[in-house]
Amino acid sequence: MKQTTIIVAIAALLVTAVLAGPSYAVGLGTGKITKISASGGTNYVAIHTTSYTGYPACATGLRFYVDLTSQAGKDVYALAMTAMVSGTDVEIGGTGTCPSGMTGESISYISAIP
Q1: What dihedral do alpha carbons 36, 68, 94, 48 form, nearest 10°?
Q2: Rounded to a whole number, what is the largest CA-CA distance in the chain?
Q3: DSSP string spanning 32-43?
Q4: Per-residue pLDDT tens digits for 48-84
């Protein structure tokens, strides 16, 4: 009986761990893009949104960063600029990590919301 109880408890813990997913913060930015800025000497552009929740501890600057060295990064930047100029709402998902030495979260995806 005692072994059965222990096995059931371990199984419950394993199921909980699998269903809980990763235990790190992933930011979500929503609303309007309020600011896009670039700093000299880096390949990153910072993007600020009206609301930014769930961000990781490293994102003390409350912003997202996009790396412009890749085509995907350039595409994200183009969509962000278009959304800002047109006043379109966006949803930006973070990766849960910040580029080395940066105070904002890397962007996983961006969606324009009509």
Answers
A1: 0
A2: 67
A3: EEEEEEE-TT-S
A4: 999 999 999 999 999 999 999 999 999 999 999 999 9
